[in-house]
Amino acid sequence: MLKIISVNLWVTIQKKAKQAEHRRAAIAYVTDPTLLPLRNGDLLVTDASDASIASGHTSASTLEKYFKSGVELFNLPDLHAKVLVLDDWAVVGSANASQHSALVYFEAAVISDRPELVGQADKLVTFLAEAGTTIDKSFIKRILKIPVVKALVPPTRARTRTQAKLSLDQKFWLVSLPGDTTYPGDPEIVEDVAEKIQKKVISKAGIVNWFWWSGNARFTTLAKEGDIVIECWRPRSKISTNRGIRVFRHGRIVKVFQEPGVKARTFHCIWSSDHYDTSVTWSVFQQLAKRAGINRKLSYNSTVELTAQQSSALFEIWPQ
């Protein structure tokens, strides 16, 4: 799993935290213990400096509740990170543990169960804890006496209505494309669209290419911007051998365009600058697919939807 969460971010974190056996976090400001349920043996690094306590950015009473619950606490002034390790999850994002973060602000975080990311996040939390100072009983007693003058907060906006329109769902496609078909519209119009996209993309980010699709196939109706495409290119529509077939590593759809009066849609994708060099034969791709856990029978002339896990595994093991 590797995804970005924005809508209901704290609901997602809270649910996982309640189920987890071990919770370790480095969060700049913490004011609401219900959002981040920590228990005995857990660890939290936060900015509990006098200035943060006095401004209400971090709550002394919240830290006291954690301390009484047996949470290991560390103070690191000027901390701005928001990193959590919840068992096999790493969460890295923008959200402080506060009601304004949960209800007012637009937040986002990357959530992943990939071992390398979880390991790096855990290492970072450990480093930040070692860089901070231990929050003990006397520390808690002192900061509880600091007068709090909360900073003014911008008025609440209609975030819920706006976020309801946000969808970060993503699909992953193995697309079969023959090389002997002709786009039924004006290719110059489509090329102009591609050139405009390319001008907005620096060369290091990739090369913009496009293909077209018509009819009511699943890909045509469901594929959208942000989806991932693995292209299986074959010389002709009908072939009797897999010779000449090339499969190209993951590209990303950046625009779906439909020329007025033309039933076909064009899908403009960004591919890595070395996508020709890293392309593989159909035989090699079949081997990669098995290693990636794709057990279904694949055909070079059909388009199928893959899972996020299958797509991610293919990307990682693809020959460089």
Task: Quickly describe the structure.
The protein is 31% helix and 24% strand.
Secondary structure topology:
Blueprint: E1 2-5, H1 9-19, E2 23-27, E3 43-46, H2 50-55, H3 60-68, E4 72-75, E5 82-86, E6 89-93, H4 99-103, E7 109-112, H5 115-131, E8 133-134, H6 137-143, H7 159-163, E9 172-178, H8 187-200, E10 207-213, H9 218-222, E11 228-234, E12 246-257, E13 265-271, E14 280-281, H10 282-291, E15 304-306, H11 308-317
Parallel strand pairs: 2-3, 3-4, 9-11
Antiparallel strand pairs: 1-7, 2-5, 4-8, 5-6, 6-7, 9-15, 10-13, 11-12, 12-13, 12-14
Helix pairs in contact: 3-6
Your description of this structure?
The chain has 320 residues and is of the alpha+beta class. The protein has two domains: 2-163, Endonuclease Chain A (Endonuclease, Chain A); 172-317. It contains eleven helices and 15 strands. The radius of gyration is 25 Å and the shape is elongated.
- CATH classification class of the largest domain: Alpha Beta
Beta-strand fraction estimate: 15-25%
For the record, the count of structural domains works out to: 2
The helix count comes to: 11
Binned, the helix content reads: 25-40%
Low-pLDDT segments, ≥5 res: none
What coarse outline follows from CA principal-axis ratios?
Answer: elongated
Radius of gyration: 25 Å
Give the termini distance in whole angstroms.
22 Å
The structural class is alpha+beta
- Taking all residues together, what is the mean pLDDT? 91
Q: Count of DSSP E strands?
A: 15
